[in-house]
């Protein structure tokens, strides 16, 4: 994925996450790791790798929210490697 596509995807994931927050379904500590990365969709000068880490973290947050708000749901990739693990 090119950087501009990654920026767009980052923005979309953050918008979805904000929707959970507006509905009161986002735990206060859910975005701690995301915020520690220090990159937002508006950080256009941040590296592609930083945006990728942010996207992966937001994806993880959204996966956990989806499972917690729909108890019958199962994680899509339960054996997915952790962010930064290679």
What's the SSE blueprint?
Blueprint: H1 3-22, H2 32-37, H3 48-69
Describe what you observe in this structure.
The protein has 86 residues and is mainly α. The protein has a single domain, classed as Uncharacterised protein family UPF0058 (Substrate Binding Domain Of Dnak, Chain:A, Domain 2), CATH 1.20.1270. Helix content is 56%, strand content 0%. The chain is elongated. The mean pLDDT is 86.
Q: Determine Rg (CA atoms, Å).
A: 13 Å
Q: Give the beta-strand count.
A: 0
Low-pLDDT regions: none
Number of helices: 3
Q: CATH fold name, please?
A: Substrate Binding Domain Of Dnak, Chain:A, Domain 2
Oligomer: single chain
Question: Which CATH architecture?
Answer: Up-down Bundle
* General form: elongated
| Average pLDDT reading | 86
Number of domains: 1
- Give, in order, the helices and strands: HHH
Q: What about the largest sheet?
A: none
Structural class: mainly alpha
Helical proportion, percent range? 55-70%
How much strand content do the residues show? under 5%
CATH class bucket = Mainly Alpha
Distance between the termini: 18 Å
CATH superfamily, by name, is: Uncharacterised protein family UPF0058
């Amino acid at each position: 994925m090119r950087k501009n596509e990654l920026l767009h995807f980052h923005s979309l994931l953050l918008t979805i996450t904000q929707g959970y927050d507006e509905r009161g379904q986002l735990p206060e500590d859910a975005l701690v790791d995301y915020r520690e990365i220090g990159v937002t969709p508006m950080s256009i000068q941040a590296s592609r790798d930083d945006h990728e880490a942010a996207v992966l973290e937001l994806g993880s947050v959204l996966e956990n929210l989806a499972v917690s708000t729909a108890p019958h749901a199962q994680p899509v990739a339960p054996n997915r490697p952790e962010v930064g693990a290679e």
